[in-house]
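Batch manifest line 249
LIGAND: NAP
JOB: complex structure
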Amino acid sequence: MMTKVILITGGGRGIGAACALQAAEQGYRVCINYLADERAARGVVDAIAARGGVAMAIKADVSDERQVEAMFRTVDDAHGRLDALVNNAGVLSQQMRVEQMSAARIHRIMATNVVGSMLCAREAVKRMSLRHGGPGGAIVNVSSRAGVLGAAGEYVDYAASKAAMDALTVGLSKEVAGEGIRVNGVRPGLIHTDMHASGGEPERVARLAGSVPMGRGGQPSEVAHAILWLLSDAASYTTGSFIDVSGGR
Ligand code: NAP
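JOB STATUS: finished
ARTIFACT:
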């Protein structure tokens, strides 16, 4: 039986929760990070346990270095290993133009999406790298098609943060390719989750569905399948690469 351990940031809701459920089905022991919604994270833990899987919830703000370090120590104490990291926690803010954005808002987006992903990647590499006596591993950064398309008039700060995450994927993948670690990215398009409400438009996916060549938004599970494949041994020669899960948009 597989005893691999996976840490999914922002794993209590949306795409992260779908990843957690699929990872458990594949036999991973699942560590579900969340920021504030303990109830949602507990719900995912309970759903996994009800199906005979192993899961735990860990509260931490990924933008806070001390909390990230404590989270990884919690994983160490519980499992003594880490095989896979999904940098999924991400935020966006109210739709607006760049000239309306405050520095505080831009800092918050960058702190969670960019700094948070880098801090978690740092802690994962310390544990996974052959260079540090680790067994190797795999990291997937959950970026966005916004990083390529730009999100004009909505949230260019968010798009810029996702482009930064893509550069992290490329650079880190080369840095650790010889140390047993693969680093890849997934760029979702319009996916049915709560995230659009935080931009002020809960029905955004429905409004823009017509701009998707496939004519519909995507489900979190459709993104999770790509993430789990990149983490799996089936992707053993794939690193520094990206999968767009966006219905062609
Ligand atoms: P979501 O439903 O809003 O869930 C976001 C998750 O991130 C929540 O579990 C939240 O925790 C967690 N989180 C937020 N800030 C955090 C922090 N500072 N520390 C730790 N956890 C934090 O979002 P989603 O749509 O599933 O998005 C997941 C990822 O996919 C994000 O990176 C997003 O940018 C990306 N993405 C989404 C779409 C889309 O259309 N939905 C498209 C492209 C890319 P709580 O549950 O505790 O609040």
